[in-house]
Design a protein that fits this description.
The chain is mostly helical.
């Protein structure tokens, strides 16, 4: 995946903040040298890398849960219902004798 120039700069600044906040000063100096980052890292990038990392993990977990739900729904769709075994399409149409008979009024429901 290719990052735009702005995204690359934001990523470098977020990594630089992470390195400086955790005391990896030699790695920070190397990053600043390789990425041509002059001066100090802005405070607005403080904790940004950790936030994005945790959000990626949370979203991956959600994707896995939704994929599981989707596969269960597809299985239910193919089998007809979660408690029934797989049925052929000819079994979907009711055949006589009927299992239930409705007794009650004979007038239309809508008046």
């Amino acid at each position: 995946m290719v990052l735009s120039q702005r995204q690359r700069e934001e990523l470098n600044k977020a990594v630089a903040d992470y390195l400086s906040s955790n005391g990896y000063l030699t790695a920070l100096e190397g990053l600043k040298k390789d990425a041509d980052m002059p001066g100090e890292v802005e405070r607005k990038y403080g904790g940004l890398l950790e936030k994005k990392w945790t959000s990626v993990i949370r979203l991956q977990k959600k994707v896995m849960e939704l994929e599981t739900k989707l596969s269960e729904a597809e299985k239910e769709f193919i089998e007809g219902a979660p408690t029934r075994a797989k049925r052929s399409p000819c079994d979907w149409i009711p055949r006589p004798p009927e299992k239930f008979s409705l007794n009650g009024h004979r007038a239309p429901v809508t008046k």
